Structures are given as C-alpha cells and as structure tokens.
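pasting for ref
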Amino acid sequence: MSNVRYIKVSEDEDGQRLDRFLQKHLKGTPFGLLQKLMRSGQIRVNSKRVKAATRIEMGQSVRIPPMEDRYEEDKRVSQRDIKFIRDLVIYDDGDIIALNKPAGIATQGGTNIDRHIDGMLDALVNDQGTRPRLIHRLDKDTSGVLLLARSSDMARKMGKVFQGRHIRKIYWALTVPAPEINSGEIKAPLMKAGGFGKEKMVVHEEGQHAVTLFDIIDRAHKQMAFVAFWPRTGRTHQIRVHANHMGCPILGDGKYGGQEAMIDGIDHIRRVHLHARAISFRHPRTNKHVEINAPLADDLLKSWKDFGFDPNSSYHAFQDIKDI
C-alpha cells in the first residue's frame, strides 16, 4: 500500500470537475471506488469534503488516500508505447500536436480495447506536466492526421473550430469501382444499426444529417479511382458508408463494401484504404493558416504504386471551395 499523497491542481486543470481530475490522475482505479472515497471524506480538496461534481481551482491541494499499487501500475506507459507514440508526432507548435495515426489502433478505449492512443498520451506530457488532450477521433481502421491540444483552453478553442465550417479535412481513398462523375456531393442521413456492441452505420431517413464531398484525383479506367473525400459533417464511419452508398466502396472495406471491396489473392487489400491526408485551419491563438499533411503508410504506398497512382500527387482537391 502507498502512503497518503497530495496533488496540486495545475493551471490547465482549473475549473475541471473533480471526478474527471481523479480519473486522469488515478487511471485504472474503478470509478465506484473513487465515489466511495469521496463520500467517506477520504478524498478531500484543501482539507474539505467534496463531491464528484465539485469544480476544482488552480493551486488547490487534492488529498489522495492510500491506494492499492495495482491501480497505480495502470497509469504507467510502457517503454514500447512511449517510443511508439513519440514516433507518430509529425507536428508540434506548443499548442497543437499532430500524429500520423496508423490503422489498427483505436483512438480511445472501449469494449475489449486495452491499447489505444489516448492511453499513451502521458508519454507526450510537456515540461509543465500538462498531458495532451484529443481534439477529435479517427476510426480504428483509418490512418492519418490526428490532432491533440496541449491545454484544455486550446482543446475548447479547437473544438469550436471543428464545429464550424472553417476547417478542411481531406481524406485519400481508393474506391472500387470508380465514381461515374469526377466530383460531387453525397447527402445521406446516417444512424447506428441495431445490435449490442455493433458499431455499424446505415443510411436511414431518420438518421443524422451527413454530407460528404468527393473529388477524383486519378482513375484506373472504370475499375478503381484515387479519390479525395471531404466530410462536411462528422458522423461515425461517414466516408465509408457514403462511398458504399454511391456504389463505390473503399478498397478493403469488407464491413461496408462486402466482397466487392476486396481483390482476391492480394492479402494487404484487406486493410481499409482510407487515410486522413490533411487538415487545414486558422490557428486559434495566432490566426495564421495551418496545414498539416500525413504521408501514406507503407502498406498504402504499396497499393497506390501497384495500381498506378501517384502517392505524391500535387493535385489540390476542392480548389473551387474558398471558405477557410
């Protein structure tokens, strides 16, 4: 058993709910136990009893009673994962960090998900001891640009940027077959399909409003296309469902495209060929234009080259849209 300790509330944590503060500092500790410790007065703030919803202030001292060591062990990031996530960093201006997330790893934890990006962010703590925060998410099967904020204030400001229309999120994909027209807009409402634990979206008239733009960068006749997608709304699996809805599923996406999205005899095709290529926006602090590009991973590079597409294409999709 460890001894009683005290954690000082940082500037970045000012105004945060106590329960969220505790979940961050005591990773792996069951939430029910934290509630019990607060109710019994064993967790206190500046020596006073508190509730889970209490808003803490910078400089306050949070008392943590003796905890079982096994809960504290969950907080540590392995050396393997420290190197893994630091190698993913492609941009860091002190306010915003960008990772080039690989496919196959979730952004956050969930059912049967123990290893995820959010669980490794202690490895990116800065000199002030501030842990980065996720600004948005990418699907587990999608690679590419993933943004983090260095402070809660920047996370809030970037959240507003994502909610507005002044951000450009460009995804690259290979579709089978190629769309019939070179560019267009897909408008189809989306909702979750039924079934416990099945995160699958379907087009349904009662679903949430969803819009995706597409622009073909190159074609391999009618059989396949190198396509840029721009989701104007942020629904789960939006691009994958919309691509399939227009009859051109993303290569390797068996979940939505079925066997039609596969090519027999080529194993690496089973990876969803969808990559968050670029994000551009006005920086909330400097108001300068920022554009972050994530290069294709090796497996996608192989596909792009095998099918005759240029992975270094300089084609600027959606040039006619000027709203940033």
